[in-house]
Recover the amino acids of this structure.
C-alpha cells in the first residue's frame, strides 16, 4: 500500500493528495499514532513552499516532520506518465518518494533521508526503478538496494548540489536574477579561488 507502481496525476498537488492518503491510511493500520491526513498534507505543502524537493534525475523527495509518529513512513510512487514538477532543469519527474518522519528524532530523519536520497541520486538505480512496473518488483529492488548499499549518513547525501555559484563581488541585481531564473531562495557564494 506504500508503493504505487502506476501513479497518474495531472499535477504535483494531485499526486501529493494520493501519496498522503496512502501514508495516512498506513499509519492508521499499523497502530502508529494516526496523524490527520490534512495535517500531513499541510506539513508537506509547507516544506514544498520553502524549496522544491526535486533532487535530480527525474526524482523528487517531498518530506515532512510530524509530531507523534514513532517511526518514518515512506510512500514510493512511480508516475505513469512522468509529469511536470516545476523543476529547475525542466525535466519531468517519474519517481516521487514521500517521507514522513518523527519530528523529535533528527538522527533517524537524516539516516532515512540519506538512504533514500542516495538511491534516488544513483542514475543506474533510478533507471532500474523506472523500468520496473509492478509494486512487488519495486519493493524488492528498493529493499535490496537499501540493504546492499547501507549508505553512510552524510550531509552530502541529503543536500543537493548548488544550482549556481556567485562571487562576493557579484552585483545583487545579478544574484537576484539568477535566483529567480533557477527558482532558488539561496545562492552559493564562492571566492575567486573556488572556496566557499
Amino acid at each position: 500500500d506504500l508503493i504505487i507502481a502506476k501513479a497518474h496525476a495531472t499535477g504535483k498537488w494531485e499526486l501529493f493528495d494520493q501519496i498522503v492518503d496512502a501514508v495516512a491510511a498506513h499509519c492508521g493500520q499499523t497502530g502508529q499514532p494516526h496523524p490527520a491526513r490534512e495535517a500531513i498534507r499541510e506539513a508537506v505543502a509547507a516544506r514544498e513552499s520553502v524549496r522544491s524537493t526535486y533532487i535530480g534525475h527525474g526524482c523528487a523527495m517531498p518530506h515532512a516532520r510530524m509530531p507523534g509518529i514513532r517511526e518514518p513512513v515512506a510512500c514510493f510512487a512511480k508516475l505513469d506518465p512522468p509529469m511536470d514538477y516545476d523543476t529547475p532543469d525542466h525535466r519531468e519527474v517519474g519517481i516521487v518518494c514521500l517521507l514522513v518522519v518523527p519530528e523529535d528524532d533528527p538522527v533517524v530523519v537524516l539516516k532515512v533521508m540519506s538512504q533514500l536520497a542516495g538511491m534516488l541520486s544513483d542514475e543506474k538505480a533510478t533507471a532500474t526503478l523506472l523500468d520496473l512496473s509492478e509494486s512487488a518488483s519495486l519493493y524488492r529492488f528498493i529493499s535490496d538496494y537499501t540493504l546492499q548499499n547501507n549508505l553512510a549518513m552524510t550531509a552530502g547525501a541529503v543536500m543537493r548540489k548548488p544550482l549556481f555559484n556567485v562571487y562576493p563581488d557579484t552585483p545583487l541585481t545579478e544574484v537576484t536574477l539568477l535566483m529567480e531564473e533557477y527558482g532558488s531562495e539561496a545562492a552559493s557564494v564562492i571566492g575567486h579561488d573556488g572556496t566557499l
